[in-house]
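ok here's Rod shape-determining protein MreD:
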Amino acid sequence: MKKLKRILVCAVIIIICFLLETTVFRYLAIASIIPNLLIVITSAFGFMRGKKEGLLIGFFCGLLKDILGGGDLLGFYALIYMMIGYCNGFFRRLFYDEDIKLPIALIAASEFVYSLIIYGCLFMLKSDFQFGYYLGHIIMPELVYTTLITLGLYQIILHINRRLEEEEKRSASKFV
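and the structure:
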């Protein structure tokens, strides 16, 4: 039952962040740049919960972006987000709730890697070799905007994760 609650809560978080990213933040765009909230979720759950959960959250974030985001290739974003969630899962042992430096650094690095993969697969393969322009006008502004939004969104995700873990521990202690 508690596992079902965690799945539902994660699904709600993914859907809310996707809706915020595709609606509200379109109006709050700075120079047509919006933050990547799904990277924040994928990375955060990866280093908070481990490789497996990071991979699963990444898959569903990417699949949602593939299906509803208007991508041409089904599974393209799912694969990228899965890799990012899984790689963030390696840092689970270094993760401490009180330390915000590691999560901010990991989310920023995830955003940067995501942008490089997008450039390599969607632009460079189409013979668009203006990496300097892409770096200065898209990658870096999106990285900064996502990192600023992370300061607030990460605290919410961390609070939700703590509450779910406390409930799971209480229910586990009833059976012991």
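+1. The mean pLDDT is 90.
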